[in-house]
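User: quick one, fold this
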Amino acid sequence: MNAIEDFLELVRDELGLPVTAENAGQRLDELPGWDSVHLLWLLTALERSTGRSVSLPDVLQAGSLADIYALTAIR
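Assistant:
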């Protein structure tokens, strides 16, 4: 996953949330349709998609989708 758009596409496809680049910096609790279960689903989808483990404590500290992307982006 090399671009935020790829990440947001994963969020849309896996979670069914209508997020755009404009939503990436919003606090998670401000995203339309977001609830805490989405965070666990997203973590699972990211690990499946990237083939790498993602730190749950780090994801729990993330405040936005952009923060989560930064934790999981291939550099």
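User: anything notable?
Assistant: The CA atoms of residues 31 and 72 lie 20 Å apart.
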